[in-house]
Write a structure and sequence with these properties.
Layout: H1 7-20, H2 24-29, E1 36-40, E2 44-47, H3 63-77, E3 85-89, H4 95-109, E4 114-118, H5 127-134, E5 140-145, H6 157-165, E6 175-181, H7 189-198, H8 202-214, E7 218-222, H9 227-240, H10 247-261, H11 266-280
Parallel strand pairs: 1-4, 3-6, 3-7, 4-5, 5-6
Antiparallel strand pairs: 1-2
């Protein structure tokens, strides 16, 4: 039988443990227990259990870009200087897939070292709050903004400029920023040309716009691929997911599939393989 005189002691211990446990609000601020998060301003981090990232070896047709991005990101994960990166080019050519695949690879090589945080395009203006929260954390963070671009009346690009290299405090050493975009300078060409014609000093307007992309030390261009590369990507998927199908048949179907979509790209290849796996009744497990 328990001694009732110990009840106050147990009560105080329980209260102390409750104080030590993180509150629900603090739990949303945690960035240490998962490899990927979606950021909701100002300080909420939604854990991502699976990013559905491809193994790095399955990212084909962009070997040079893959080598450069992996080297840059690994240096950063190991605590060495690295550049912010802009991955630009044709849609569906593997820009965001490459970032996620590189992150997956480094999580396997360096467990717990690097967290990926997805930043929505509309939250760019709130980035200073995110950097303040991550500043001084022991972990390294890779911020990814997918499909980044700016329109005529959008001035949030100025916030991004200061975040990347400006301000007295500067970008925290444990934070790196990657962006993907269909536009090399993140803004429509016609918008830049219109402003140049309308401005008294047109060249200065262009310099103002281009200076944003200049903040990225690493530029990686992605372009539409030829049919042989398209076939190479599909073949790698078929082999990885153990999808057995006659080569002449899948190649003919893949050509027809690309024609209906107007291009050969990594995204089109993946969509074809997804359709084929469904017809064969086979799961696509990462």
């Amino acid at each position: 039988m328990q001694d009732e005189s110990l009840h106050p002691v147990w009560h105080r211990i329980a209260e102390a443990l409750e104080r030590l446990a993180p509150s629900p609000a603090d739990a949303h601020r945690d960035v240490h227990h998962h490899d990927a998060y979606v950021w909701h301003p100002p300080t909420q981090f939604e854990p991502v259990i699976s990013t559905h990232a491809l193994p790095l070896g399955l990212v084909r047709g962009v070997d040079l870009q893959k080598a450069q991005l992996l080297e840059n990101t690994e240096r950063f994960a190991r605590g060495y200087p690295a550049n912010n990166a802009l991955l630009w080019g044709a849609r569906g050519t593997g820009k965001s897939s490459l970032v996620k695949a590189v992150h997956r690879e480094l999580c396997e090589r360096l467990p717990g070292k690097l967290a990926l945080i997805e930043v929505a395009r509309e939250d760019i203006g709130a980035l200073p709050a995110l950097l303040t929260h991550l500043y001084g954390q022991p972990r390294r963070f890779l911020l990814l903004c997918d499909d980044l671009s700016f329109d005529q009346d959008d001035h949030s690009y100025k916030s991004l400029k200061s975040v990347l290299e400006g301000g007295i405090r500067g970008r925290p050493e444990n934070v790196l920023f990657y962006a993907t975009s269909n536009r090399r300078h993140l803004m429509p060409r016609e918008m830049m040309e219109n402003e140049q014609r309308a401005a008294l000093h047109g060249a200065e307007v262009i310099d103002e716009k281009v200076s944003l992309s200049d903040r990225f030390g690493l530029w990686l261009g992605f372009h539409l691929m030829d049919q042989s590369t398209y076939f190479c990507i599909i073949e790698a998927y078929l082999r990885h997911f153990a999808l057995v199908y006659p080569q002449e048949q899948w190649q003919a179907e893949a050509v027809e599939w690309s024609r209906t979509r107007g291009s050969c790209s990594g995204r089109v290849a993946w969509q074809f393989v997804t359709d084929l796996a469904g017809r064969l009744g086979k799961p696509l497990q990462f």
